Automatic annotation (TrEMBL), chain A:
L-aspartate binds at residues 91, 174, 228. Heterododecamer (2C3:3R2) of six catalytic PyrB chains organized as two trimers (C3), and six regulatory PyrI chains organized as three dimers (R2). Keywords: Pyrimidine biosynthesis, Transferase. The keyword Hydrolase does not apply. This is Aspartate carbamoyltransferase. It catalyses: carbamoyl phosphate + L-aspartate = N-carbamoyl-L-aspartate + phosphate + H(+). It comes from Sporomusa termitida. GO terms for cellular component: cytosol. Catalyzes the condensation of carbamoyl phosphate and aspartate to form carbamoyl aspartate and inorganic phosphate, the committed step in the de novo pyrimidine nucleotide biosynthesis pathway. It is an enzyme of class 2 (transferase). It holds the Pfam family OTCace_N. GO terms for molecular function: amino acid binding; aspartate carbamoyltransferase activity. Pathway: Pyrimidine metabolism; UMP biosynthesis via de novo pathway; (S)-dihydroorotate from bicarbonate: step 2/3.
TrEMBL record, chain B:
Its cofactor is Zn(2+). This is Dihydroorotase. It comes from Sporomusa termitida. Residues 50-236 form the Dihydroorotase catalytic domain. Its EC number is 3.5.2.3. Binds 2 Zn(2+) ions per subunit.
């Protein structure tokens, strides 16, 4: 199939589990072109002029929200942010009500972040605008998955055949899940590692390798993706102390050396330096962490463009 | 007034009866059961090709009255029961206020006489206010007609309270019914813990939480030498623990629900809140173990755990939705479709679990067909094809995991005390 024939199948972007590889490739290819816009002096393409995007964030995330906001603005769309805590539910406004209110304002896209798994699916069932999942609980974070793939491809030239180690709190990580689906479909070999208390039971049933020893996952890895550890998990008794976590599971120079010499180090941010990742390597030669942020913008621009322009490839749309 | 049910396949599990014949009803009671009964002056129901069974008994429903009538009340709940082929149901005490005193038991019994269309039995709370601290007035409630005692709706954390509850309830020869699932282990989970929860990122409720609680509860019943009934068994481990306990003579009985017998956690992939229930829908190996348990008698009853909720309560994100759904009107269709038409269980086996089995556990004289007994009878068309449409339910609970499914098998007529109260899906009272 030539690129021009691929288009996004569904109205909404809910996750990578259901997204075919060809669509992911289309998004990554489009993102490459979008990245050129970011590097220009005047970062404006009039492509989405007259379109309206609402960032509906029930959970704080300056990083993802800003990225979506700039992505929309660089493409000329009108973007507004609605930050609300899910305590609005307590006030009697249900998610259904909120979505219908936003829909009534005539928006084209709702970018939604919510702490409940499946909330993006729920929104897609209810609302007419395009729903882009910007993270639903521990379920999926598709744009993060895509930007991670984009970053790997940028440095490694490919995804197929690479060994990717994802290390940390897999249990609560939407980033891990989106990465697993995306990378698997693109032919990478995914290894997960972390303390047993932070690994979902039976996750190995989806065809990935799971390790308790970080060293086993890192061995000869092409990419090491380090996940954020939330300190609240320690209060919940899922690991004994930050000190012990850093010592046994933290990624430092010595452990990173087990991976291939040119292995790429990634982190979705924000980082707990000294906990899951050592400060020296976070900013070291192998780190792609800054680039991930930039690529996030490019991927989100690509996605907004594709979902609004009928899902056809950028070249075909010109 | 005479009624003759003619030429049906009569299945009466209490006596291992499975014959084609007639049943004559006179003055609300069964007057004769035989190959050919006298028809003079009787209204005749042609039951040729249909199955005639003792009125079905559902020992586990949530009627929501008193206090939560927006979800359900006696009038709507018993009509749903009639539509589902049930002639007797037992309601759980987790209402507001809880059914934890003889006054509430007596009040509901009175209400059931005027509002109800099927027979209503009441299960009293084990602890005051279902708070799990002090015993409720169990003896008083039983003397006012409560048929069993339970804090269902949640797990009893206090091992000591359950021990005293079993000892005390046991004196009256009544069972304690437990919702056995260790809450600490279930850990505020939203679904079965396994490969599907791993993918969805939804916090899981591990099957071992049920296994451990069932083991504890059975050990206490054994210690107290008192009857215990394990509600809605859903795990493979629990089935095995109950099986072993029965072998060594513990007074334990158990039930499984139509949904746990026919659905798996795979259904949750769409995040449809209609599938959210406690204990959660588990994986296929657990479902297979439940069916084995029914087959070999480890599980004595099929009970719906009918738990209606207001529509908007379920119309939210998965984790915020309450657990449970309407079960009375789909039970027969689901069980026949999933267990009978697939050849997993025979019709007499299924009818036993839906009538005689639960009646025996609650010490009721229903669930059997015998001359002189009240004529509570259900007539079922095992071949009737229909599609579930929640909007048409008599219950106020408009959520069902079986919505839009095609089922094969349906109760066509429900008779209570000799009166037809439901015919062709329509409740006549
Ligand atoms: Zn229960």
């Amino acid at each position: 199939m030539s690129k021009a024939q691929v288009s996004l199948r569904k109205k909404d972007i809910l996750g990578l589990e259901a997204m075919p590889a060809a669509e992911m490739e289309l998004i990554l290819d489009t993102a490459k072109e979008m990245k050129n816009i970011i590097d220009r002096d005047i970062k404006k393409a009039p492509t989405l002029r007259g379109k309206a995007i609402v960032n509906l964030f029930f959970e704080n995330s300056t990083r993802t929200r800003t990225s979506f906001e700039l992505a929309g603005k660089y493409l000329g769309a009108d973007v507004i942010n609605i930050s609300t805590s899910s305590s609005s539910v307590a006030k009697g406004e249900s998610l259904r009500d909120t979505l219908l209110t936003v829909e009534a304002m005539g928006v084209d896209i709702i970018v939604m972040r919510h702490e409940a798994e499946g909330s993006a699916q729920f929104a897609a069932n209810i609302a007419r605008p395009v729903i882009i999942n910007a993270g639903d609980g521990a379920h999926e974070h598709p744009t993060q998955g895509l930007l991670d793939m984009f970053t790997i491809k940028q440095f490694k030239g490919r995804l197929a055949g690479l060994k990717v180690a994802i290390v940390g709190d897999i249990l609560h990580s939407r980033v891990a899940r989106s990465n697993v689906w995306g990378l698997q479909k693109m032919g990478a070999e995914v290894h997960l590692a972390g303390p047993q208390t932070l690994l979902p039971r039976e996750i190995e049933k989806i065809g990935i390798q799971v390790h308790n020893r970080v060293e086993d996952a890192l061995d000869q890895a092409d990419v090491v993706n380090v996940l954020r550890i939330q300190r609240e998990r320690q209060q919940k008794g899922l690991f004994p102390s930050a000190r012990e976590y850093a010592r046994i599971f933290g990624i430092n120079a010595k452990r990173l050396a087990l991976a291939k010499q040119d292995a790429l180090l990634m982190h979705p941010g924000p980082m707990n330096r000294g906990l899951e990742i050592a400060p020296d390597i976070a900013y070291g030669d192998q780190s792609a962490i800054q680039e991930q942020v930039k690529n996030g913008l490019a991927v989100r621009m690509a996605l907004l463009f594709l979902v609004l322009m009928g899902g056809t490839h950028i070249e075909a749309a010109h | 007034m005479k009624l003759l049910i003619k030429g049906g396949r009569i299945i009466n599990p209490a006596e291992n009866m499975d014959v084609v014949g007639d049943i004559l009803i006179e003055n609300g009671k069964i007057a004769a059961i035989g190959s050919s009964c006298p028809a003079a002056g009787a209204e005749i129901i042609d039951a040729a090709g249909l199955v005639v069974t003792p009125g079905l008994v559902d020992m586990h429903v949530h009627l929501r009255e008193p206090g939560l009538e927006a979800k359900e009340d006696i009038a709507s709940g018993t009509r749903a029961a009639a539509a589902g082929g049930f002639t007797t149901i037992a309601c759980m005490p987790n209402t507001r206020p809880a059914i934890d005193s003889s006054i509430v038991v007596a009040g509901l019994t009175q209400r059931a006489k005027t509002e109800g269309v099927v027979k209503l039995k009441i299960i009293g709370a084990l602890s005051k206010g279902l708070e799990g601290r002090e015993l409720a007035e169990i003896g008083d409630m039983i003397e006012s007609g409560a048929v069993a005692i339970s804090d269902d709706g949640g797990h009893l954390d206090s091992t000591r309270l359950l021990k005293t509850g079993l000892e005390y309830t046991g004196m009256f020869g009544r069972p304690v019914i437990t919702h056995s699932e260790d809450e600490g282990l279930a850990n505020e989970g939203f679904m079965h813990e396994g490969a599907v929860s791993a993918v969805l990122g939804l916090k899981g409720r591990p099957a071992v939480a049920e296994d451990i609680a069932v083991a504890r509860d059975i050990m206490l019943a054994e210690y107290a030498n008192a009857p215990i009934h394990i509600a809605h068994v859903s795990s493979k481990g629990a089935v095995e623990i109950i099986r072993q306990a029965k072998q060594r003579g513990v007074k334990v009985t158990a039930e499984a629900t139509p949904h746990h017998l026919t659905l798996t956690d795979e259904e949750l992939r769409t995040f449809n809140t209609a599938f959210k229930v406690n204990p959660p829908l588990r994986s296929a190996e657990h479902v297979a173990a439940l069916i084995d348990g029914l087959k070999d008698g480890t599980l004595d009853a099929i009970a719906t755990d009918h738990a209606p909720h207001a529509f908007e309560e379920k119309d939210v994100e998965f984790r915020y939705a309450p657990s449970g759904f309407a079960g009375l009107e789909t039970a027969v269709g689901v069980v026949l479709t999933g267990l009978y038409h697939t050849g997993k269980l025979t019709l007499p086996e299924i009818i036993a679990k839906l009538s005689y089995g639960p009646a025996k556990i609650l010490g009721l004289d229903s669930g059997v067909l015998k001359v002189g007994a009240p004529a509570d009878i259900t007539i079922i068309d095992t071949e009737y094809k229909w599609a579930v449409d929640c909007i048409k339910f008599y219950t106020r609970g408009k959520h069902s995991p079986f919505e839009s499914r095609n089922l094969k098998g349906k109760p066509l007529i429900t008779i209570v005390n000799g009166s037809i109260i439901m015919q062709n899906g329509e409740v006549l009272k």
